[in-house]
Amino acid sequence: MARLRKLVVPIGLVLLAAAVWLVYQLVIVPTQSQPIVKADSWDEVKQYQYEMTPGLERAEKLKLTRNYDHVMQIPGTDDTLVLHEVWYSSELVYILYSVDAESSWSGGVKPLLSNVSFRIANEQADSSPGMYTLNWHPGEGIYYKGRLYGRLATNPLMDKDNKILSEVPSITIERLIIQQGNEQQSLKDVTFRLNYSAADERVETFPVDQSYEALDHTIRFDRLEMGPNHLKLYLDADSRLAGEKYYGATVSLRTNEGEVREGNMNTNIDDGEKYIQFQPLNKRPTEMSLEVKSLRYVNPAHLLKFAVEGQYQYNQVVKKSGENYNINTDKKLATVGQTDAYLEELYYDDRGVSFTIEYKTKKMKRPYIKLYADSPSIKLRGMEEQNEQTLQPPNLVQVINDKGEQAEYGQAGSGPGDRFSVFIDIESVKTSKSLDVTVSNLITELVTDWKTDIAIPPGD
After folding, report:
1. What CA–CA distance (Å, rounded) separates 362 from 101?
2. How far is Cα 448 from Cα 219, in angstroms, rounded to an integer?
3. pLDDT value of position 12
4. Confidence of residue 379 (pLDDT cuts 50, 70, 90)
5. Could you give all domains of the chain from N- to C-terminal order, each with its CATH number?
6. Which residues contact 145 (CB under 8 A, 6 or more apart)?
């Protein structure tokens, strides 16, 4: 059985900031494990780009992208890098490129993968953001007529006050590196005239004004905002259960153009308003259906408690044998709604002990309440009770030993399935007879089947 199935950095209250999904990578190691698609026409290349870059097709139609087809010779080779297109927006900046591929796919041989990295800058910006890959992974792309097409992304430029520049006359692509196999080459900086203006990114607002109520919970959708790089659904959610606070929702949007956007987000707040953000649309719809699959809340009244042995297990097993081992406890801890919570296993090794919580839910006719497994927060030393109650961090873990001391923690994470795990550091295990674990602020989930339609008037 997996020990810690999905590991993340120790989180604590930083979990609230860990929703930041933009991770910079300045050097990407090439890999042959990602799929490459072979195209038979240029239309197939474009469709692939549109699928991998939601909103690009509509941005092109609205003339918000810039085409350059700038050819750059790769030093020491006969190959070229071509910077084809830039979509600069206030949300993200995409650069579409291609490189010569070694193979023409004869005999089914795939081309040699090339990976590109860069950063952008200009005279107005206070910093130069690096690039990242999002859903278009290193070594992934589409092959057409001897070239492999890829895409990279970065943040829009900001001023010294960390405000996004609303006007960007030009950008310089600098620190441009291409890696082919084990060979890495640096290319010259290149400056493109851009003439970007945030005013061109027109955002339309459509009223929704629909609400849904079930099992002491209410959600009201206020409006939908739609732009070429922007799709947000604003809402308000309430619970009549004492102390319970809205945490997130799983919502699906489907358009009459056949596009589907899934929102599975924890709380986002914009000027005090809650919203769910979706990937932008490639085609402007005239009809849209909204399906609410679940609503999530943090409830301070629900908690789990159990004890873990420390010194004895370490001294008698790990220290003597030098081996790690599992204890499959499968101990029921609590029932909330339709979910039974179990201490599934304890795992001891020379790093400490990890515990795994598993949720087992009985399926019922919707709506119903169940527990939702998410990455735990860690109660750190010095955390003020007032701040804790205000922030109400979800799945808050606290471990106290038999001396009344708070434990040190290692890694924490969630999955697979309805599970989450936390590692207690070896120093706390070796110096404690027992460790009392409390997991408070459990996340409850209202599973629903509510649907409604949103009218979208004709437009561009």
Report:
1. 53
2. 11
3. 38
4. confident
5. 31-200 (2.60.40.1640), 204-293+447-455 (2.60.40.1640), 304-440 (2.60.40)
6. none
- Location of structure tokens 């997996």: 2
Residue that is written with structure tokens 């001391």 in the block = 405
Tokens representing 387?
A: 């701040």
Instruction: Specify the pLDDT at position 23.
Output: 30
Question: Among 422, 425, 385, 390, which residue's Cα sits nearest to residue 405?
Answer: 425
3 state DSSP class of 66: strand
Token digits of residue 362: 């009985």
User: What's the CA angle centered on 82, arms 78 and 85, to 5 degrees?
Assistant: 175
Region of 330 please: left (phi>0), alpha (psi -120 to 50) or beta. Answer: left
8 Å CB contact between 228 and 55: yes
The phi and psi torsions of 427 (rounded to 5 degrees) equal: -60, -40
Q: List, in sequence order, every beta strand (DSSP E) within 74-156.
A: 80-88, 93-100, 114-121, 131-132, 141-144, 147-154
The span from the CA of 354 to the CA of 306, in Å, is: 13
pLDDT at 387 over 60: no
Q: What is the CA radius of gyration of the chain?
A: 26
pLDDT at 333: 98
* Count of Cβ atoms closer than 10 Å to residue 232 Cβ: 20
460 versus 159: which is more confidently predicted?
159
Contact in structure between 209 and 222 (CB atoms under 8 Å): yes
pLDDT of residue 459: 83
CA atoms within 13 A on the CB side of 62: 23
Angle at 255 between CA 252 and CA 259, to 5 degrees: 80
Phi/psi at 8 (5° precision): -135, 170
Q: How many whole angstroms separate alpha carbon 14 and alpha carbon 158? A: 24
Dist. CA 386–CA 390, nearest whole Å: 6
User: pTM (2 decimals)?
Assistant: 0.81
